[in-house]
Amino acid sequence: MLVQHLSPIASSLFSLLAIACLLLSFVMLGSRWLNNYLYAFAAESWIIAVLSAAVGFYGNYPELYLIAILTLLFRGLLLPYLVWRIIRRLDVDREIHLFLQPSTSLIVGALFVMLALSVSFRIAAELHLQLTVATLALTVMLSMKLIGFLILALRHEAVSQILGLLVLENGIFLGSQILVPGMPLLIEMVILFDLLIIVACFGVLVGYLMTHAGTTSSLDLKRLVG
Amino acid sequence: MVGALILTLAAAPALAVIGCMAARRPRAAEALNLIASAVSFACAMPLPFLINGQQLQFWNDYIMIDRMSAWVVLCTSIVYFLASIYAVGYMRLLNEDKRLCTFYALFAGFGLTTLIGPLMNSVGIYWIAIELTTLVSTFLIAFERVAESMEAAWKYIMVVSAGISLALLGTILFYWGGSFVLGPSYKMTWATLTDAAPQMNPALLKLAFLLVLVGYGTKVGLAPMHSWLPDAHSESPAPVSAMLSGALLNTAMIGIVRFLGVTKAANLGWLPQCTLVAFGIVSLFLGALFIVRQQGIKRLMAYSSIEHMGVVALGFGFGGALGVAGALYHMLNHSLNKSLMFFGAGIMMRAYGTKEIALIHGVGCRFPTEGALWLAGAIAITGAPPFGLFLSEFTIMRAGLKPPFSWAVYVMAILLIVIFIGFMNHFRAMYYQSTQSEESKGDRLSGWCVAPMWLSLIPLLVLGLWWPTHVWDYLASIAQSLNLEPQ
Hints:
The structure holds two protein chains of two kinds.
Chain A: H1 8-30, H2 34-59, H3 63-89, H4 102-127, H5 133-154, H6 158-179, H7 185-213
Helix pairs in contact in A: 1-2, 1-5, 1-6, 2-3, 2-6, 3-7, 4-5, 5-6, 6-7
Chain B: H1 2-23, H2 26-44, H3 47-50, E1 56-58, E2 63-65, H4 67-93, H5 100-116, H6 123-141, H7 147-182, H8 190-196, H9 202-220, H10 228-235, H11 238-265, H12 271-292, H13 297-318, H14 320-352, H15 363-366, H16 368-381, H17 388-400, H18 406-431, H19 447-465, H20 469-482
Antiparallel strand pairs in B: 1-2
Helix pairs in contact in B: 1-2, 1-5, 2-4, 2-5, 4-5, 4-11, 4-14, 4-19, 5-6, 5-11, 6-7, 6-11, 7-9, 7-10, 8-11, 9-11, 9-12, 10-11, 10-13, 11-13, 11-14, 12-13, 12-18, 13-14, 13-17, 14-16, 14-17, 14-19, 14-20, 16-18, 16-19, 17-19
């Protein structure tokens, strides 16, 4: 188990990076501009790439360097570029109708982090891993999951929903780097490619939505009920 | 032998995908997909007989076939074959000849992903296979290019991708739990996970199982994660609806069942099966509510799918030989029957030019043969004898009649009766002839559309009258290997 015998410097570096990721997802939650979402997502992916490399360095998993490079290329550059192309094609640059004001959604997000924290404390106590970076990794993983769902629920623009989905995936990826760095390389790589295909599919679908449904806001998608 | 069959099973639709994209002629694409589906069906048919209770691994252990996956692959290949025959007749009615090649390429791709999903030995790769089915089928749902199908496709990909990411989280937590036992790097196959489960931490396993259940449950369409299902099933072309309902849902269900086996090995107590029973009851309840007041014909079938997935979930939740065998038998019957229902619904939708139940009437007079087949299917889908679903539902109920879950059986019985009345009421309205001056027997339907209806109804009737001993033994041995005895 990597997290049990980490040097203090490594463990504080991992914590710093994980918390930075969590903060960036709060940036997405607190803003209503699509460009901010995109920048926050890109920065998040860069941090995850650094984290992969750091885990590879301190935990002696050379294959994680490859994952770090691929994360940087795919999640950090290619995905934001694809989403940026979608944004450019649309005539929308911000969320117009909001269920919750950004300030309120920040508070809800904070409540979610507390929920995640209590769950991961419980799990860490069971596994005798209290006060290790594993607790923090689990907390960040679960809270990014919850924040991603919050973004999906509160935002209506197609692009914000895509980014909400990517936050969900980022949370999982970040947590898995710290908790299970030894996961087979193949699975991680396939998941990376899979994400790329998903976003490409989303891009095509957003185009269809524009042409055939005349809208990209999920508020207007209400023909099918009952 | 088995290896060659599995290879052919997957290679046929894969070649059809390439062929359809290269052919550029709609008739050629049609034929290619049909041949591929027939080959897949021919390969899947002997699989359950050949594997003899052993677990076979191929291709560096990435592919695994056991009795359960052979059974689910058989169900899937039947639906794929029937839907491919039907598609020949149905897709010509849409006048979309230019885009038919794309359609068949996607359709064969959808067949491919649903066929190989259950055969994945690695838990992570299984997740990816399920994700791929989503991506391919989204474009099939969006095929008709109208606002409604775009909306359905968007909701589908959004809800299912978000849901299935929970399953990924659960899978990673399973891997983490295993890494305490097996060391940081190991191959996470179903077998290693089951072997390591007794030593894993129960609290972590419970959390991981609940995440996986909700995640794959979204794909199975268990309520309350079902919200994509009625939209997607009603707005896609009829052969795709049949595939979604008869093939895709089973492919995702097998994942839940395998994880249930893992938690059972870990001795987690009543929680996993109880949660599954709860989801089953909620799905039945919700299906019943929406079936009674339904207005769209294909949405009626979609809610019936939710109901039947609820019944399957109940079967696995009740456990024991009766429950598991009943649930697996129910999968086969439901695959046959729901294909029949969607085939009929597609014909009626095209003939009357509407999806509204209220605007369809006099079906029996206008389409004597097809109407009779569809009506028989409707009687079967509500679980009335002498069809297969009656037998499997009855077996599942018998499985539950023991103390922990007996309440669920009574609720299930009441809800099934409500569904029977609601469903039949809609069919009464559609078969009722209001005026004599209707055009009678005007339409000649293509044989491509009618033949698969016969092909699904006859086995359904046979399976209802006669549950072969070999099939029972086969299913009971799956139950034994899963060991889902109630506590």
